[in-house]
Structure formats: structure tokens, C-alpha cells
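Hello everyone,

My group is preparing for a crystallization screen and wants a predicted model to guide construct design. The compound we'll soak is zinc ion. Before spending weeks at the bench, it would help to have a computed complex in hand. I've included the protein sequence and the ligand's SMILES below. Output in C-alpha cell form would be ideal because that's what our pipeline reads.
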Amino acid sequence: MDSEKTIIGQCPLCGGNVVKTLKGYACENSFGDQPSCSFFLFSTIGNRRISDAEAGEFLSKKKILLDGFATKEGKCFTSILLFNPDGSVNMTSQIGTCPKCGGTLYVGSRSVSCNNFKHPENPCKFTIWRNTSGHDFSLEELEALISSGATATPVPTYDNQGNCQQHRFGFNDNKEIIRL
Ligand SMILES: [Zn+2]
Ligand SMILES: [Zn+2]
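Reply:
Good plan to model first. Here are the C-alpha cells for the complex, ready for your pipeline.
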């Protein structure tokens, strides 16, 4: 029987095809007697299974925001996966600089919040709910909000009565999320 390889995406190191293997996703150029590449992405990261679709998105966008990772102690966490220059995976929950106080923003399962939220003198209440007006923000939208103060494209948003309107998102003067 002929065997066929399942191509998941392109290798971030050499541009070759990344194929699904027993334990994860490997660059085709890592096979054989004289491999020219060593890229391999494990299909389990942070005690979480990565789906083929997620691996494909990660390979094409070079970063992905995922929920449901777990520490050895079983504590759940959210993380952004990035590639290190050597092709290994870097996990971070830092997503940018707080537009209100300049602190560091962290992404969690429900919101983005500022590391100064418990600051003794000047607590920072800056928050972006990951679901706002019925819309689930993508990583790209969160980054656009944080860095440029608004999302790029209108998306369907909903009010309490179920009315749907297309809006972009931005901030008011208090750096609270509003529909533009
Ligand atoms: Zn490669
Ligand atoms: Zn802040």
C-alpha cells in the first residue's frame, strides 16, 4: 500500500514541509541519513494536546494563543506559543505593555490584565475581557488593541436584546473597551 504524508504546514527554520508523525510534527528535511534540518514540534505541550489545526495555525502565524495548558500540579493556564530561533517552543503569558500605566499585561483564560492590578498605591484596573459584546478576540485583535488602541476590522457584536451590529473595538478616555 502506498503511504501518504499529511502536510501540516511549513517549517519555521528551513521552509520545508512539516508532516504529522507518531509523536508530533516533523520537518521533512529532518529525515534520512543526512538531515539538513532538525525541526520537530511535539503534539503535547504543557500537558495539553495540540490538534493538527492548531499546529497548522501555529506554523503559519508563528504564534498562537491557546487555553487549557496544565502545570504538573494540575493548575490550568493560558499561554501564547512562539518559536525560539532554534525552532523550539517558547511559552509566555505576557501579551504587551499596559496602555494605562505602562505595566506588563498578561493573558488569562477570561481576560487580559495588568500586573499592577494589586499595586499598593496605584492599582491598575486595566482589563480586556477576551469575550466582549459576544465577540471572542483573536490574538491579533488583542495585540492590535494593546499596541494601536483599536481593532482593524469590524466584527459582529451583540447587545442584551440580541441585536447584532458590526463594530470595531477601541478604548474610551479611561482605557475601557468600547465599541467604535
Ligand atoms: Zn526544516
Ligand atoms: Zn496597568
